[in-house]
Design goal:
By secondary structure, the chain is an alpha+beta fold. It has eleven helices and 31 strands. Strands 1, 2, 23, 24, 25, 29, 30 and 31 form an eight-stranded mixed β-sheet that branches. Keywords: ATP-binding, Nucleotide-binding.
Length: about 600
Amino acid sequence: MSFMKLFKKEKKGKDRGRAVVDTTSPAMPTQTPVIPQTLPHHRILATDVPVSKVAGHGSSSDLPRVRYMVGIDFGTTFSGFAIHRVPNEMIGKNPRTSLARSDSSTQIIGNEDWADRPGDVHSHKVPTIIAYPHGERSSIDQCKWGWSAIQFNDTMTRIERIKLALESTTPEVMRPVVPDGMRPVDIISDYLACLRREMMHFIASHFPGDNDLSADDMLICMTVPVGWSSKAHHTIRCAATNAGLISNENSRHLLFCYEPEAAALACIHESSFEINHNPSLLIADCGGGTVDMFLARLDASKELEELTLGTGNFAGATSVDARFNMFLRSKIGMRAFHEYKRSLVRHYAKLEQEWESKKRTFSGTQDWLLQIPNALSKYFPANKVAELENLEILITAADMKSFFDPVVDEIINLICDQLEQARNLDGANKIEKVDYLYLVGGFGSNRYLQDRIKDNPGIKAMVGSVVLLQRPEAAVVRGAVWFCINSQSIRKRRARQTIGIGVQREFDPSRDLKSEITFRDPANPSRAFVSKAVLCFLAKGDPVSSNASYKKTGFRVPRDGQPSIDVNVFVSNEVPPSAKGMTNVPNPEPASK
């Protein structure tokens, strides 16, 4: 299997050697390494933030004294925030025993009145768009962002979907255009700075007595898609620091939570009906850029245990947008389409708002007569002039379905995959029928998507009830606040990767070269070892308890009195042939820290 080196923890000393695992001799007691769970807010062998001191974990003394619990959903197409003002008598205390058990008294509020929001659009979030004057980075006072960035002029350079620049797995067709001289982390920093400024205005208007707030007065949870790399998490942390959301990159005041997990917390704490009998819940978080799944069981204490390995992909509403744009290009020609965006920016901004409204409200039956501006006619190709003589394009319900169906099919496949995994679980965890399927996220509020899911025969047979929230687009950001209040609400997760440490195994002439020998046993020089193995602590898909640690014994050091060793940590996206056993690694692939 393929492993990558994640991190090298080196203790300097007079002598250094490598960890040796001898499975045939009695173990010698040594100090054993500790590896925390593979969650976004933990770091493997981190020295700057001790695992036991991560904000929101452990005893109340580990919690930072904060006045506000803040959830931030930095989305592909829309972003937003929600806040909870900690009662004065609770500041500095552990909220798990009070707030998380009394949902009715826990007030979470967010902005719904964004600047320049179209009158016919009601949203808890704002577009993830920022526009720079003359294509150059400037102060946030000169930038346009959110709804204001859509109504820009020819001197502004608009950047959207910048979140998708963080992951190398993003399909090329969906990757955002980053202007020369700009970096994604800088653009995200600017957008988050604008969002922070709006958030501070919102707090000042609702809680005028709270003045001179600093970053350390807040505990922030930012939500991230399932499957994001640690590099993407680090970039977001850097951007949050630059934006003033946290005081430094290692701040304990920033947590990460997977988007469908956050949505799950909102579903259970804000349910319109009583959830009893330890039910199983499948959360389908259908957002703008990504779709993520989370299947869990809810216990009597409103804590969740993930039952399967969460899955996700890029089958969000942005993929529907891409198919609409391809359709439009085929109707008016490539040159006209580019001039529409480049030269007729105000007309194109109006088209975008009209498309967003049609996309949100599409239920499967509506046609749409799209009006084309007259100024665009001079760019039509010769073979399209007659067809577009009336400057109208009829987009039928069948056309609209052709934009939606490939994306909806992918979402249904993801849901069915989770349901099939539930059926294949071992023992008492096996689930023949999931009690509740929650559809959340901005795209999750679309009627056509909802009906396709509810009418699917496979889903009907394996789901008790499909639940539609009153405000599905706000579930993730509100759930992020619940995660701040009790970050141990997710009691058990499934490991996203296999983790192990590099060790030596005995030389095997059938598969090793003599030149690869790195150590010989001083007591028995005929026993040789090679550094070509990884001892797995945790296999992908294993259940991981909140704030868990893993220990291994049985290590030997090559020489008596040796003061230190090097420990190399490896990760893999594959399940080892022998789970948690020792796996051969012919050529471990190095990776950045």
